[in-house]
Design the sequence.
């Protein structure tokens, strides 16, 4: 990391002993913070002259339900394609995992031209709730609504927590890893009722197998037959 980032890290470590620095493969300064410390710490990061993070440029939710797992890992392929992913397995909780939902805050100090990321975990995956930071950065209003809409995360103290991208009649939260790709409901226009109605989704989930194309003699049928005849 650059000297400026390490300088900022030193200032943060000196000021906040409750923040835990996280490794970052992208070279961004990242700290883990407990939910109860969010409001106080973010207020200090915004107001204190050593930091002056005036802007919250993004707030995003993350679902770690199937983190580290992949149904597409394979070690072999044929001329007809990969067999991986055809037999779909419903996402399941890793028995060794202790946390599922996280929220990441991306902060910007215009004064110092420095960036900082804060990451916190929701204690209860069945009822993920965190304090709102709309009172610190008004831009969090729509960001938190987006996290609520797509992940089902709740933010206490938010002035208007409602869906922002999906319809009001939408069922579920589409960015959760266990949300079906076909959705829970489908909509159509009913000419008799003269309105749009919702019905249970009747789309059959399926996984397409990508074809592997190799341009060599092993996979050319004409050349293969000719070679067999020669032999």
Sequence:
């Amino acid at each position: 990391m650059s000297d400026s980032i390490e300088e900022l890290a030193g200032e943060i470590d000196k000021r906040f002993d409750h923040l835990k620095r996280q490794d970052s493969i992208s070279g961004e300064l990242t700290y883990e913070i407990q939910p109860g410390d969010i409001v106080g710490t973010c207020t200090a990061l915004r107001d204190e002259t050593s930091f002056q993070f005036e802007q919250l440029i993004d707030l995003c939710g993350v679902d770690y339900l199937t983190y580290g797992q992949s149904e597409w890992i394979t070690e072999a392929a044929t001329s007809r394609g990969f067999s991986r992913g055809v037999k779909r397995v419903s996402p399941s909780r890793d028995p060794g995992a202790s946390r599922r939902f996280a929220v990441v805050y991306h902060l910007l100090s215009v004064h110092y031209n420095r960036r900082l990321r804060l990451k916190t975990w929701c204690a209860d995956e069945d009822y993920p709730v965190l304090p709102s930071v709309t009172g610190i950065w008004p831009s969090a209003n729509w960001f938190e609504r987006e996290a609520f809409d797509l992940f089902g995360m709740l933010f206490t103290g938010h002035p208007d927590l409602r869906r922002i991208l999906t319809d009001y009649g939408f069922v579920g939260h589409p960015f959760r890893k266990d949300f079906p790709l076909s959705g829970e409901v489908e909509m159509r226009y009913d000419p008799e009722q003269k309105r749009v109605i919702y019905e249970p989704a009747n789309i059959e989930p399926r996984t397409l197998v990508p074809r592997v194309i190799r341009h060599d003699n092993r996979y050319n049928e004409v050349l293969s037959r000719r070679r067999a005849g020669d032999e």
About this structure: The beta strands are 20-22, 30-32, 55-63, 101-109, 114-121, 129-131, 154-156, 185-190, 195-200. The mean pLDDT is 84. The chain has four helices and nine strands. The domain at 3-64+99-169 is CATH 3.30.460.80 (Beta Polymerase; domain 2).
